[in-house]
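In line with agreed milestones, the collection of sequences with tokenised folds has grown. A representative record is reproduced below.
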Amino acid sequence: MKFSDIKQFTEDAHYRINLPWDYLEDWLHKDRDGVIPDLNPEFQRAHVWTEAQQIAFVEFMLRGGQGSSEIRFNCVGWMKDFRGPFVLVDGKQRLEAVRRFLANEIRVFDKYHGCGGTGFYYKDFEDKPWLGHVDFIVRINSLPDMKSVLKWYLEINSGGIAHTEAELNKVRKMLGKNHD
């Protein structure tokens, strides 16, 4: 066997931005020719992180944690005609944890964010640190159809990531249907 004979994964998204948390909600709700991202597409698993896991993630990121900040989307017409669907493919649990923190639904380091999802500082912290230094790396692919998106989802989440077989089998079953 040659290395060049190994079947490669779906090419990762070429579009990449750093999205500061203080701009997250604005970016998620931005109207791109009528296309808004679907944060809960059918193939995604449910919100499975406990509140303690959400708090631990946000605290990890605020402390400068690395390696868990990528969020992946797919939009067929990205940067062209923005033709959808525009769907969240990877990062649902991380995204929900941060959104809950920004909306004052969870406390981190025993403090609330305090800005109701907008603004640049933490109300409960004396030094009012700016949230612009904490971000997600957003990658957006432009795969042509749902079959390709489901395949990409399985490739991302089948390699040792903490998904149950039932969660993966749900998407495998969906992939077996005609989703073009």
User: Anything to note?
Assistant: The first strand starts at residue 15 and ends at 20. The longest helix spans residues 51-62. Helices lie at 24-28, 51-62, 92-102, 146-157, 165-176. The beta strands are 15-20, 70-75, 86-90, 135-141.
